[in-house]
Amino acid sequence: MKIDFEKHVAKAIFHSPVKNFELDSQQIETRRDPLTGLTTKVRTGRKAWQRLYTTDEKLLAEIAEKTREGCFFCPERVNKATPRFTEELIPGGRIVVGEACLFPNLFAQKEHSAITVISHQHFVRLDQFTIELLANAFKACSIYFNRLNQSKPNKYAEIGFNYLFPGGASIPHPHLQVLASDWPYFLIANLLENNQKYYAQHSACFWEDLVETERKIGQRYINRLGNTEWLVPFAPMREDEVHGIVRNKSNFLQFDDSDWESLADGICRVFKYYKEKGLSSCNFALYSGRLSQKLDYLWAGVRIVSRSSVQAQPINDVWYSQNILYDGLVTEPPEEIASSLRNYF
Ligand SMILES: [Zn+2]
User: Counting C-beta atoms within 10 Å of the first and last residue's C-beta, which end of the chain has fewer, N or C?
Assistant: First the structure.
């Protein structure tokens, strides 16, 4: 096997007050991602933590109702309150596909920075997202990337999703962040470098080998949807992390409609799993190599993670260890996540 799943197991030993001060132990694993080299801690004991991450549904319904009035992304205000592109770049100023509407971000994060509002509906619960809603939003992004690439080729591009305030969204109305620039994010640069090294060393694509290996092991592989492969990573950096990978395509401009639909399908299934677990907030990011460059060694894809849920006093799931020391931390082993998630695929 070319792929090395490296893990170190340790035990924390103590006299436990919840077991009448008998000697007890907890297992901690340090795992290293076989491609990126990033390390993470896998703790057990999610059951004790689950209560802290469970949604206050009443509060969530109140927030959804309270924020509806005055929302810039609702259909009655979106055309009056959001920016427009220049006519040369996007004739008409905005891109509309079904309910999706893409326009410039008023608070740009990169040279090319847009927002795609996903739905006409102000609040969409995690289990109410449909393949059609998400796929149309992705297709609007694809039109934008194509237009950008015609005028300024060779950009790096990403599509991000912050859902609800624990996930970093200031507006609950579901929307995507759509970005392109000359500089890749850290993870993309890491994937490009390590994919290229693996390709040179083994004369094989890492992703092809990963999918084949994970399928054989059977502990973290989920399923294939169309041209996309779904799995839970060996070394997750964040809670409930799930990866979707598009076979043999390194950038967004190579995706056809069925690829966008398969990605939307997989994301909707993960959302349903999160919702039934009591969660309400999440992030995802779709990543790509340079828009004009077809690479044999990179497969583009999506990574999805859950976040702390909507509560009056939410416990943030990102601690000093992730925020400052740059290590991952999860409280439920990925093999257990995969076992539950398979019921949704
Ligand atoms: Zn709204």
Answer: N
